[in-house]
Amino acid sequence: MLPVRGRDGRAARAARILGTRTAWTPAGDGDFYCPGCGGDRNYQRLTGRRRLTVLGVPVLPRGSAGPVVECAACHRHYGPDVLDHPTTRRFSAMLRDAVHTVALAVLAAGGTGSRTALEAAATAVRAAGFADCTEDQLAALVEALTLDTGRFFEQPGSASLTIELHEALDPLAPHLAPAGREALLVQAARIALADGPYTPAERDALATVGAALTICADDVTRLLTAARTPS
Q1: Can you tell me the distance from the alpha carbon of 12 to that of 15, in angstroms, rounded to the nearest whole number?
Q2: Concatenated DSSP letters for 41-65?
Q3: How many Cα neighbours within 13 Å face the side chain of 123?
Q4: How far is the C-alpha of 73 from the C-alpha of 220, rounded, in Å?
Q5: What is the rounded distance in angstroms from the CA atom of residue 191 to the CA atom of residue 117?
Q6: Helix residue spans in the chain (DSSP H)
Q7: Is the CA virtual torsion 76, 78, 84, 85 positive or negative?
Q8: Cβ atoms within 10 Å of 73's Cβ, excluding its own
Q9: Phi-psi sector, 96: left (phi>0), alpha (psi -120 to 50), beta
Q10: What is the rounded CA–CA span in Å between residue 62 and residue 48?
């Protein structure tokens, strides 16, 4: 065992003599979701230069390091892809907008003549974060979208409807767990069911919602059937 300790000792002495030091330079900042802290924090984006050190003194360049993202609170370093995850505030806004868009799509498919469907949609939208949303506001929005020649819900399955839904759901879907994506579709289904069985137009609209949420067709069918059962 003595030779082993001797080798360890020599390695430790060499490490004290020779080493590598990285000098970090700030290259940007902002807010992000820190996985280590589990919440929104400030960050600095850093780039670095490595140098060989002898007795702690930098002597030779050893190339670049980073870029990395450093949390201002816990000071942990992460790869730049950590910034792809939305902050809690941004995620809440994305979810709120998605619920609103899905509710409008379902109402546009089924018509706004049913007060119960409007009430179900308004309840969902208020719960998502639009606290002041009313049934009359939703009805007016659907009417305005229908009349708008640039961005309107022409008919279920139309390119316009698909674009609207994908714009709202594509950025959100990767950050939702499968249960969250399914819950959003079931919520939309219950808006459609508020005034009776699905119409063909509503089924088409819900299928579009499911596709935008990356839910396979078989699971969409399963969830639309399950939504008929009161929770």
Answers
A1: 5
A2: EEEEEEEEEEEEEETTEEEEEEEEE
A3: 11
A4: 42
A5: 6
A6: 2-17, 88-110, 115-128, 135-147, 159-169, 178-193, 200-212, 217-226
A7: negative
A8: 14
A9: alpha
A10: 11
- Site of tokens 């974060």: 129
Q: Token pair 């499968």 is at which residue?
A: 178
178 preceded by a cis bond (ω within 30 of 0):
no
Mind listing the pLDDT tens digit of every residue in the chain (231 residues)?
445 455 565 555 555 677 777 788 999 999 999 999 999 999 999 998 887 777 767 666 777 887 999 999 999 999 999 999 999 999 999 999 999 999 999 998 887 788 999 999 999 999 999 999 999 999 999 888 777 644 444 454 456 667 889 999 999 999 999 999 999 999 999 999 999 999 999 999 999 999 999 999 999 999 999 998 765
The single residue listed with the structure tokens 């579009």 is 208
**Nearest C-alpha neighbor of 48 from the set 23, 79, 19:** 23
CB of 133 within 8 A of CB of 126? yes
Measured over all CA atoms, what is the biggest interatomic distance in the chain, rounded to whole angstroms? 88
Q: Which two tokens stand for residue 220?
A: 């969409």
* Closest listed residue to residue 62, CA positions, set 28, 18, 15: 18
Number of neighbouring beta carbons within 10 Å of residue 219: 15
Provide the 3-class DSSP secondary structure of residue 211: helix
In the structure encoding, which two tokens stand for residue 229, read together? Answer: 């059962």
Cβ contact 38:44 at 8 Å: no
